[in-house]
């Protein structure tokens, strides 16, 4: 509804500018403390017109024409600023649209196919806390882009033939896997042991190199060993991802691009650019004109490809599958991702949009899978859910254990996802699980509790026979400040969805969810619902509770969080 309001404002102002005799300019109204929208267009026109901005603003407003029942109540000036106030029609139509569209409210204004790659952690152990920001950003962006109308294919690119996998394959030949452990955790144990052995006996590194060469040359026996190792790790990783409510549509193995010949083809295309050179036997690409002093190695001296080479082939394939490509990468990939984009540009291929995120850590410090110094995502989730269960048990001791487990899972996973996503990707963050689970702070549990509160109000009203979900309350009686503020906050859902999708900034939705929950709680505090003065007002306020519940649920779904009906 908000976007429709903005479009009407732009159209009205453009017509007024033309009638006032000024040259057409771009009009981009913005939110304001003094009005629902404000425009600085008078500043743009003043210099060309040879008039003061105040004079220009007044001339534009004098030529405003509003049609009946539009979303604009009035347009006036405060000095050079043109201020726009939303009409009652805007309020009532927002209310009615939410109740009619329900789960479909918000978004659906874009089209096209997007291929979004995220997580893609090496299958040499379980996901650790350092990985989950990638997963949560990627999954949340997938949800946002789908909500806005895009057809999104979320992919996990499986490194199934690199050095780490060669070490895992070798480790499985020399060390026993613990059958009691989850498969990815068991893989990590033998991987750690293998690295320790290789450090003690560097000569064995030659055997690892030999395994990598045999895989690339098509040795079926070694390929199967690699595949078996990868399958074990990926099985455990997928289980953890699903536990976090993170979903991939497909898992794409990098080895497929070697076996299909696509890696050789991309290397040939790079050679034809005239940018390649041989450095100590390795094939390198000169990207100095793109601003990179360091060359990019695309083929080792032994003729084998690198992860980057296979990634280039993968991106060429992705370019043929979608209208747009998006990669979610950690800050340690800044250089290589820039070189990848430059190389793709040099050979005339579509470049991806890259979302670079800084790392998330725990107060315990940094993590390394190779050295065994990490806290797994599974450990973190177990810890958070146990703490969430304690909180639910304290608040609802009368409820059965099944209820407590279900709510604790929703709240625990939601707290992790929200605390990770609420920070803009380019900013580093430390995950504090105690703060994330604090029901008194405006975090994930606060938004979920607001949804549960709205659901409980409607349930109680239904049990008392005073609420019918199919009813059509009269929204025009909602005139209190807190009621209007809540409806206007609900109407903003389209705006924040569009902004988050356009800028690839999922934290915008997290902030909006908190602000919407706050607006709902302010409304509930100041506007009695079940104890309203008249039946008509009570029905209207129940309708508004229903609107808030629906949009809170939509926000929680977009954030990948559960929407409990009771907490």
From TrEMBL:
Cited Pfam families: Arg_tRNA_synt_N, DALR_1, tRNA-synt_1d
Domain Arginyl tRNA synthetase N-terminal: from-to ranges: 3-86
Ranges spanned by the short sequence motif 'HIGH' region, renumbered to the chain: 121-131
SMART domains per the UniProt record, alphabetical: Arg_tRNA_synt_N, DALR_1
Transmembrane segments: none
Domain DALR anticodon binding: 447-567
Biological process according to GO: arginyl-tRNA aminoacylation
Keywords, ordered alphabetically: Aminoacyl-tRNA synthetase, ATP-binding, Cytoplasm, Ligase, Nucleotide-binding, Protein biosynthesis
Claim: Transport is one of the keywords in the record: no
GO CC term, one of those recorded: cytoplasm
Enzyme Commission code: 6.1.1.19
Enzyme class label: ligase
Keyword Protein biosynthesis: yes
Predominant subcellular localization, coarse grouping: cytoplasm
Cross-referenced PROSITE patterns: AA_TRNA_LIGASE_I (PS00178)
Subcellular location: Cytoplasm
InterPro entries: aa-tRNA-synth_I_CS, Arg-tRNA-ligase, Arg-tRNA-synth_N, Arg-tRNA-synth_N_sf, ArgRS_core, DALR_anticod-bd, Rossmann-like_a/b/a_fold, tRNAsynth_Ia_anticodon-bd
One of the record's GO molecular function terms: ATP binding
Name by which UniProt lists this protein: Arginine--tRNA ligase
